[in-house]
Amino acid sequence: MYWYEYCPKHVISKYQLLVFKDNQPFLPLTDYYQDCLGRIDKSSATSYLRCLLPFFKWLEEESNYQGNPVQWNDSEEKIRVAVEDYLLYEMRCKIRDKDSFRFVNLTNKSPNTISRFLSALKSFYKAMIRLRYYPYYNPLIDGQAILHIYKDELKGVREDKPRMPSVAGTEDPIIHRRLTDSYFKVINEEWQPQIIDDMNLPYQVYQAGKKVNWSQREMIVARMLFETGARASEIIELTVGDYRQRKSHQEVSTFNKGSHGRKIKFLRFSKDTVKRLFHYIYTERKSYDENHLEFDQLPDDAPIFLSANGTPFTYHAWYYHWNRAMIVNEMSLNPHKARHWFVTSRLKEIYNVSKNEAEIQQRKNELIKYMKWKNPDTMNVYEHHFDEAKHREAHENMLEQMAQGEREYTKQRKSSRKLMPTVIETTNIELVDEELQELLEGLE
């Protein structure tokens, strides 16, 4: 069993986080996480680590190479075989051989973390080579492909001669692009946000939590997920100072993915959640705090959410409670879906309350800024859902009018013994609009 804990503040250590294997420190992953800090932001490093933990457990329990389990520090060939098996049997992917690498096709049973897992594993072996833990080449990198591309770029117009300098003007310019060096290449992954418009979803989750006796802490985090649209880590890692920074008592400052810990966005939640939050701080949290401090006595860097041991609450510890509630209540719900639910709900509200297109666009821009989307086109995928919904509504109205017309026609036919059909003469109709004429001719 692999798991991790953040280092308590009162403990002096060079590690911010410790990874454990069967309750013993596991240095390869511990050093990997530490090596990541400063290279990528903390939330990405933690996300990579969470992707790797199940793989390391699988390596130990399920992997097989010629009758023996694969170790993480085995040769490239053994690691590649193990990763391919993991993608096939655990992540339900399809693998296709291609030259010196593998194509990875996702199926409808594959999780949405395939690319992240492969990136994390490639990053892990880069760190292990850098730290001199791994004596082989990176098994997640296709060295042959890089070599071929490099050789092609060195070829000049003169046979068996190197390229002339660019100023000579005799060579085609080199197209500078990022080399795809991955041994496993995902070829059919296109990110699509999930449209979740079940308005009762939050209440179903709250009830699921109550059934497994969630504490105040788990319930507040769940409520904030649905009310703010934030990622779980952005909520779990909040500090007292994050709350004090905002003027409104219903808001907190927090980091964003890729912000390297800088508090560049804010979250807003309901007054009821504010009451629950302070009740938690003055009761449950106070009992966990080794100094039993109240809100006004806490320093700005004190975490809002604590574990039962008085240490900062972690995503790993929180997810245990979330997952248990989902399993017991037979719900299949990734916590990130709360974010999709939030966006879908906000867009529905925007369309309902806006009076014209200008108001709709203004409110959508405000939502984009609140979500801190780097690519505004993300909104287009959600809008497609609402375009379809509006079409369904208009089409349903048309079908209802047709049904009403059919009822009236039938009633009229019964009341009249001799109902003459209406004949529409079209031969003498003058069509001024040529495009309309073409359309009618196309329907014949």
Q: Describe it for me?
A:
One of its GO terms (biological process) is DNA integration. GO terms for molecular function: DNA binding. Keywords: DNA recombination, DNA-binding. β2 and β3 form a beta hairpin. The chain has 15 helices and 8 strands. Mean pLDDT is 80; it is low at 146-154, 167-172, 174-179 and 426-432. The radius of gyration is 30 Å and the shape is globular. It folds into 2 domains: 2-164 and 175-186, no CATH class; 191-397, Orthogonal Bundle (hpI Integrase, Chain A), CATH 1.10.443.10. The protein has helices at 27-36, 42-61, 76-90, 114-130, 143-154, 201-211, 216-228, 232-236, 240-244, 271-288, 315-328, 337-353, 357-371, 378-415, 434-443; strands at residues 2-6, 17-21, 24-25, 94-98, 101-105, 184-186, 251-254, 265-268. The strands form 3 sheets. Strands 1-2-3 form a 3-stranded antiparallel sheet, covered by helices on one side. The protein has a 3-stranded mixed sheet with strand order 4-5-6, with helices on one face. Helices cover 50% and strands 7% of the residues. The protein is mainly α and 444 residues long. The termini are far apart.
